[in-house]
TrEMBL record:
Keywords: RNA-binding
The protein's name: RRM domain-containing protein
An individual GO BP term: nucleobase-containing compound metabolic process
Pfam families: DNA_pol_A_exo1, RRM_1
Species the sequence originates in: Tritrichomonas foetus
Amino acid sequence: MNDASVNIKFGENLPTLEAYDNEEWKLMEKHHVEFFPNIYYDVILISTETPNFLDFLTLSLSNTKENEIDQEKISLDLEWENELCLFQFGFSKSHSVVIIRHPPGPGNEELFHFMKSHHFYAKGTHNDIKQLRKKFKIDISSFFSIEDIAKTRLVPYGHSENFMEMVRKFAGEPTAEFKDIKITKSNWEQSKLTKRQILYAAFDVVSLCECYPNFPPPFTNNSQNGQIGNIIGNRITDKINIQKKNKKNRIVNINFENRQKTRRNRRNNELIKTKQSVKFKRTPAKAIYGFIVRNYRGTNNLYDLKYKYFPNNNFLIDFCSIFEDILFVGTFEENNDILNVLHNLGDVTKIVKNNLLPIDATDGDVLFIRNISNKLIEKFNEFLYCFGTNHDFSINQHNDLTYIRIEPREATLSYRIRLFIDEFEYNNQKIIVTDFPYFLPKIRIQNLPQYFGKLEIESLFSDIGKIQNIEILRRQFDYQEQTAFVTFNAVEEAENAIKFKNHVLLSNISSLNHNKETFIKKYEDIDNKMTGKIELNIFRFTDEPHLRFMRRFELRDTDSSISCSKDVLTKYQKYGEIFQYFYDQRFHVGRIQFYDKKDAYTAAKAENSEMTEESRTIVIRDLAFTTTDEEILKLCSRFGIIQNIINRDINALMRFVIKEVTFSTNQAANLAKCSLGAMTINGIAIRVAVLNGGYMDVTDWKMRQRKHWIKLTNTKPNDNLFEDLKKYGKIVKFIYDKRQNVQIPNKNENKEDEDENENEKKIPKMNDQNEKIKNSFHARNENQSENVKNKDDTTFSHTDQNQNDYKDDEECFGDSYIMFKNFLSLQETGVQLYPTIEEFVNILNHDELMIENQIVDGMTLKETYENPDDSSTIRMAIVIDPFPENITENQFIEYLGEFMEYLEFVLDKSLTVNGKQRMVIVPSSRSMTNKIYSRLNEKPVIENEPLLKPVRMRFEDVPNSPKIKPKVVQIIKQESKKMSILIDPLPEGLTEIDIETMCAGYGNYSLTITKSAIVKDKTRAILHPLNCRAKKHVFRALSTQFNGEQMKPFRMFPCDIPPPL
């Protein structure tokens, strides 16, 4: 064993984790790594093929006393690709980690006996045990002793199962962010593992070693730990009973708790499936007046803050929130009564920002914040919650500069941040908000010649300034031009690099020497169509997600007078500062992007340029590295005219490439998505999605916020309640869902009578678990004083009407929803009563989210409205006002053609022109709305007549909306996870073990091999998914090739499966 080890540390002025992305960790290589502050572990990588490899494990146990060796528990983690390939063992007493590579094939016998003779602990062992069972071909539960700490020490005590939350709570903050989803999905079977991969793998077992001594004792049903054991046991029993009760009382309708369940209905002998998903809405921002109240002296009761202090004007309040001793208030009007109240609450500052308009904020904005004090950075999450919860942010470091990148997912939140934070001072530091990272001295260079390396790039910019760092991105093919990031010392140097080097022509001949004078020419001197010349495209650096957002406002100029990049610059530089511009030789168009989206709108209108709609672009994922642009263009050209193709950046860990294809119409994009969705290219099943702006699937971080909420049924907000809740953590948001004219159920009523009246009266009942929550919060009598005094003895009171609303009587009660800053705060309450998905969307985030119900009918998507009055359903409408008098109803029906089956329409009185009519069209789905809207904008009803001017909006927003119902499709409850997956016949040589290997890690399922029902003397496989993960992924995993033969799985209900021949 090589004892010579090198220290790996992380911190200021030390290499970051990214520096180890491309460095190989060789076999027998050992390093002394600081995973936690001043806590080092020796990490070594070996293989089962290493001679006497068990000696390394024995040596790690050598620091343990002889009589304790058998009792010492070892932390365990596993990594696998197609099969188990990496074993990680952590030894807490010797502070060492041994990582063992295992080649494909049967499990090593020596390793099996080592694991059989020792005790282990791991987190979340379900899939690990499954992989061990496949590797050693034996039921390892009878041989291995592995404690699942999630089941024994986390869940029973109400602790989070999230790995990093567990680490921070029981071990502390690590020295670096070792956990990265890119590493998780990297190739663990590749011949050379990187140091980043080994550090990731070692961190898992090191964290377990550091957490394990701080865990509570293992929980068992026979626990003798006194009262705690009884409490936890009762919680688990209550949770099981509630689940059984919910299952028993489940009615036949869409269950929003599972967002992607599918159902079927036999209608005209046709199979119909449905799918539900939560999506972001796209809503415009509204103009508000902003006020900052310092030295705030009012209540911390968030309900009182809005409804008690402003009893007559609460409808004018957009939002109000508290941060330390500061109150932020946004109002729709500058009302004197509101101002008087604010002046009594503290020192009021009105925000005046005449240059900020609501149109400046859009869904999906990316904002950059700097000049922040360290004290505020520590509380930034709490601070940002003052303006809304629909955001994601990251804290970044560049040299000595700390900046924060925010992605507000709604225009309203973006507008609030721009309005308030830009005018906010904290610790005498005024915060700066920009929509581009102008402060980074970094550029992005595209179209670098193939032979260029770091030396050539340094030579290219030697007359500009000193270069700090050069990063050359990975290419799909070696013959492609390159992309690089170059970091200078100062922003001025980055600007000069663009000014003097952008759009220069370089010779793509590698025999030229590195003296820049020999191959650099200005485009004024050389025709840029000359053979062997490459035109550089240089622009300021920003991250790729921000680039994708900026492409939403890219202009496309098809003017035939434009033939080079210089023509593009000459035509558009007068409209504002340009971010990037170039002439696209492939599609023969000029492309322009401005820093300010308002400049883009102005230029598009003046020059009649096209700004591509996001919904015309499809994203193709999981493409093999061998897939060329020409293949994708040829494949997609049959769906419509292609306007652009873009390759996303490739990092060192990516195993597939991602391409974006933009079409000329929305229909072409939707058709391509439906047709390509189930296709296999180069043996890999691809994934295809349509970009649709704000109407995009909700992100994981947003759905995780549901676990920050707690619901208290039939609970009125009062000061006592807030005082009791504050001890569990910072409260960032409160919502009271009030219901009126509903009688509170009598607790002494007969249970049978309650069951009979439950569906008729829809009475919300307080369950046992909710009682426990209220008891744990020490809920007191809700009758309290109607007057609230602040520190200046200023009194605020209700009107009589509001006092009655606030009073806890039989005619008014509701549910209180409380959001904590941290998930762990909610865990401290000991009870997990989260809002349902439907409540989370329709009550807590009704302005930002929506639930979309879709029917997957063959190759098309159609939304369904099972109940048009259901608030969870979004009905869309298209209004044409006024409707031309020269178009008859029959002409319009003929014009719509095949769409008539999926819509209803009505002609009624125009609201804009007296004596004329308007047309209101209500399609059956949003996708159908988009198709009809596109046709109305692209094709006139009568030839040589002008196009109609349709307006698309939500049906409830239509002024004087007519009485009209959309097409209704009835759904019979039948889950598609009950559909089996068949492969009939099986390819020659395909065994049961091969199928299990293909589906490893894709959920639980049952597998049966029987004789074929199609080909005599052949076999077939029948897989029955047992959970949603298997339902979604197993089918895709089987859509591959085996020994050169394409497998063709298909779905079928068990009752329809034919008997074998």
